[in-house]
Amino acid sequence: MKHIRTCVTSIGSILALSGTVLAAPVYLSCTIDGEDGPGYKVTLNEEAGKASELSDDGYSITADAAFSPNEVTYQTSTSDRGFAAFYYSSVIDRTTLSYTRKSLMLSGDGTRKESARPGRCEIEKAPVERAF
Predict the structure, then answer these.
(1) Within 10 Å of residue 36's Cβ, how many Cβ atoms?
(2) Least crowded by CB within 10 Å, which of 17, 66, 107, 110?
(3) H helices of 20-119, where?
(4) Cα–Cα distance measured from residue 41 to residue 27, given in angstroms and rounded to the nearest whole number
(5) What is the pLDDT of residues 15-62, one digit of tens each?
(6) Where are the beta strands (DSSP E) in the chain?
(7) Which residues contact residue 29 at a Cβ distance below 8 angstroms, ignoring those fewer than 6 apart?
(8) What dihedral do alpha carbons 34, 53, 124, 21 form, nearest 10°?
(9) Measured at the alpha carbon of residue 116, what is the angle toward residues 114 and 121, in degrees to the nearest 5?
């Protein structure tokens, strides 16, 4: 009986420790190939299942993200008074840091326009000392 209690206690300790390991958010700076326009600051929080994106021109989103072993995908949509819908999807390769920004526009008359713009991300370190 004592041996069983020891095993159960050991297994419980291992499970408790494995559940307390927290992954830090990953900070990226991403750009679209061949564009001089705004780049994107991306924060990936795998534990929360979220991605936040801030463009250099001030546009920002926070979205649910899917984290697979190979890539991270997140998307958002907007509409313009019900006449059109815009869907944006970003895919970041976890090995190569390639970045693909996909967009789909559906207009009120049923016209569909799709595009995919490739780019690249670089890992940024969070400042060591922050005010908050």
Answers:
(1) 7
(2) 110
(3) none
(4) 7
(5) 344 444 557 899 999 999 988 867 899 999 999 999 999 988 888 999
(6) 26-32, 40-45, 50-55, 60-67, 71-79, 84-93, 98-107, 112-124
(7) 39, 40, 41, 42, 121, 122, 124
(8) -140
(9) 150
The verdict on pTM exceeding 0.85 is no
- Residue boundaries of the structural domains of the chain: 22-124
Residue 41 dihedral angles phi and psi, to the nearest 5°: -100, 120
Considering only residues 130 and 76, tell me which one the structure prediction assigns the higher pLDDT. 76
Buried b / exposed e across 109-131, counting CB within 10 Å, b at 16+? eeeeeeeeeebbbeeeeeeeeee
- Tokens 């209690």 identify what position? 5
SS3 category, 70: coil
User: Distance (Å, rounded) from C-alpha 90 to C-alpha 118?
Assistant: 10
